[in-house]
């Protein structure tokens, strides 16, 4: 099982970066549960503050490009791919080699960003690809947007979670998710990320 987790950090200059609020907790809970179930787990993780499960192959990365490279390196031969990482959609087009100085003239600083490659979609397009699972963290039209991503990214299962409710999802201990495939929709009520991850892996092992 190959799992991506956490945020990515996209450098602006030597001391600054753009990132997001992902804590990595859902991905780490899934990795731990998969290890307990006897799977060989590779966990490609952005910078987080959690201890990785023992007996998993941890591959630490920082940027979206590094995550992409690590996934491409490890994906061959995996049965299941679970993308929980909040991969930055955009990165600064140019990383300044020295710290950007404040001009002090009230002018806006314009940061040009370039779009990153979609890792999930790239793996889905591969021949002999694993069973593909993605996450859709949404603040509005949760199920509609998640279903669109299932189709667009050509994956097998998308797990939708509402990140507008601060008590679940990003950086929280709990989650409430809806599993969406082409033929079913299944709600897992609010529970700890560990319990939710057990149910998700059960679903995957019954359907992959
Ligand atoms: O399109 P969006 O970022 O909302 O899709 C979320 C899903 O796509 C997650 O599973 C995430 O890990 C994956 N993703 C990716 N590469 C990107 C952006 C998102 O694999 N560049």
List its salient traits.
208 residues; alpha/beta; eight-stranded mixed β-sheet; two-stranded antiparallel ribbon; 12 strands; 26% helix; 28% strand; globular; binds cytidine-5'-monophosphate
Short description:
This protein is of the alpha/beta class and 208 residues long. It is 26% helix and 28% strand. β11 (174-180) and β12 form a beta hairpin.
Mind sketching the topology for me?
Layout: E1 2-5, E2 10-13, E3 16-18, H1 25-36, E4 42-45, E5 57-60, H2 64-74, E6 80-83, E7 90-92, E8 113-115, H3 119-124, E9 131-138, H4 142-152, E10 157-162, E11 174-180, E12 185-192, H5 193-207
Parallel strand pairs: 1-4, 1-6, 4-5, 6-9, 9-10
Antiparallel strand pairs: 2-3, 7-8, 10-11, 11-12
Helix pairs in contact: 1-5
The structure holds cytidine-5'-monophosphate.
The site of cytidine-5'-monophosphate has 14 residues, from helix 3 and strand 9.
Explain what you see.
The structure is a single chain. The chain has 208 residues and is an alpha/beta fold. Helix content is 26%, strand content 28%. It has five helices and twelve strands. The chain has helices at residues 25-36, 64-74, 119-124, 142-152, 193-207, and strands at residues 2-5, 10-13, 16-18, 42-45, 57-60, 80-83, 90-92, 113-115, 131-138, 157-162, 174-180, 185-192. The strands form three sheets. It has an eight-stranded mixed β-sheet, with helices on both faces. α1 crosses α5 (193-207). The protein is globular, with a radius of gyration of 18 Å. The mean pLDDT is 95. Bound molecules: cytidine-5'-monophosphate (C5P). Residues 4, 64, 83, 85, 87, 89, 116, 118-120, 134-136, 149 line the site of cytidine-5'-monophosphate.
């Amino acid at each position: 099982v190959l799992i991506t987790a956490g945020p990515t950090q996209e450098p602006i200059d030597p001391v600054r970066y753009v990132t997001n609020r992902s804590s990595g907790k859902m991905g780490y809970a899934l990795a731990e549960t998969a290890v307990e179930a006897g799977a060989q787990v590779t966990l490609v993780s952005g910078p987080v503050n959690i201890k990785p499960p023992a007996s998993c192959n941890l591959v630490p990365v920082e940027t979206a490009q590094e995550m992409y490279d690590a996934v491409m390196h490890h994906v061959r031969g995996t049965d299941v791919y679970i993308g929980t990482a909040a991969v930055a959609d955009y990165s600064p087009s140019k990383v300044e080699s020295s710290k950007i100085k404040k001009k002090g003239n009230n002018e806006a600083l314009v940061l040009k960003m370039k779009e990153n490659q979609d890792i999930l979609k790239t793996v889905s397009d591969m021949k002999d690809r694993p069973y593909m699972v993605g996450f859709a963290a949404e603040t509005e039209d949760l199920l509609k947007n998640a279903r669109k991503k299932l189709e667009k990214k050509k994956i097998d299962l998308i797990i939708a979670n509402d990140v507008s409710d601060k008590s679940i999802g990003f950086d929280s201990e709990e989650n409430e998710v809806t599993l969406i495939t082409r033929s079913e929709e299944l709600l897992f009520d609010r529970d700890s990320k560990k319990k939710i991850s057990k149910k998700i892996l059960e679903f995957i092992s019954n359907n992959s």
